[in-house]
Specification:
Layout (H helix, E strand, L loop, with lengths): L4 E4 L9 H9 L3 E4 L5 H17 L14 E6 L8 E8 L9 H4 L1 H10 L16 E11 L4 E6 L8 E6 L11 E6 L2 E4 L9 E5 L4 E4 L14 E11 L10 E2 L3
Parallel strand pairs: 1-2
Antiparallel strand pairs: 2-10, 3-4, 4-5, 4-6, 5-12, 6-11, 6-13, 7-10, 7-12, 8-9, 8-11
Bound molecules: fe (ii) ion.
Length: about 250
């Protein structure tokens, strides 16, 4: 096991020792909380999202209060702060969804707020576009084309740490590439150390990205195989001038 990776088991994320997790993260460790939801539930979520991608015309919606849940294709979209190629499915707490995601993952968002020293339901119900909002973002990186350039996300009052859930298994769903971070001068391929349903945390300003998935496979954008993940995001809304944008950074 790499020294940079700490694995934690729990039945209830809210019973974890918050300060212990913060200490790990502040020391540039990657914390993996094992299996917060079952593989079966992960598979039904990715199956549902795959069906959406096959049967919906994609659309871009900016993140603002009242935005609809949406499916977006980002194939090196020029509007994106960080260049990447992936499919994205965004869910907001003010909309309904068939999985009731914000009930299912309520404790995950609460724990994220707690380690950021915020009140439990901060950003759950924003009242103005000067604030921030929580968002659940599923991302699919197809074989051959899926990647996200190395970048750093802003560390600010809304979030110090990123929270990602793994929905694929490297070695089975794809073989090469995947989530990485750069700690010191060392590139850590995080997907080599995590399973379906694991929750991954690290400091937002640690350089990270997604290395091209299976570069040698044949391209097929509607192929179901590739890398799936969920991001428990806290996003600034359009009139929030307090928080900087993410920046690409070469190693
Ligand atoms: Fe990021």
């Amino acid at each position: 096991m790499l020294k940079s990776i700490i694995k934690v088991k729990t039945q209830n994320i809210l019973k974890l020792d918050k300060q212990k997790i913060i200490n790990y993260l502040e020391n540039d460790k990657i914390v993996i909380i094992k299996k917060i939801i079952s593989k079966k539930l992960c598979n039904s979520i990715t199956k549902y999202l795959t069906n959406i991608s096959h049967n919906t015309i994609p659309n871009y919606f900016p993140i603002r209060i009242g935005s609809p849940n949406n499916f977006r294709v980002n194939l090196e979209d020029q509007r994106a702060m960080v260049k990447g190629s992936f499919y994205q499915f965004s869910f907001f707490p003010w909309n309904q969804d068939v999985f009731n995601f914000f009930k299912l993952f309520k404790n995950v968002f609460i724990f994220k707020n707690r380690i950021n020293m915020l009140s439990d339901e901060e950003f759950f119900y924003p009242k103005s576009d000067k604030e921030c909002a929580i968002r659940l973002s599923f991302q699919f990186y197809p074989k051959k084309t899926g990647f996200l350039n190395q970048h750093q996300d802003p560390v600010d009052y809304h979030q110090k740490y990123l929270m990602i859930m793994n929905l694929s298994k490297k070695g089975k769903d794809f073989r090469k590439g995947g989530l990485f971070s750069v700690i010191g001068k060392k590139k850590i391929m995080i997907d080599n150390f995590s399973e379906v349903g694991d929750l991954i945390f690290f400091k937002a300003d640690i350089p990270h990205g997604v290395e091209l998935i299976d570069p040698k496979s044949s391209p097929n954008l509607l192929e179901d195989k590739g890398r799936w993940m969920a991001l428990f995001a806290t996003n600034k809304l359009p009139k929030n001038n307090r928080i900087k944008n993410s920046v690409e950074k070469k190693s």
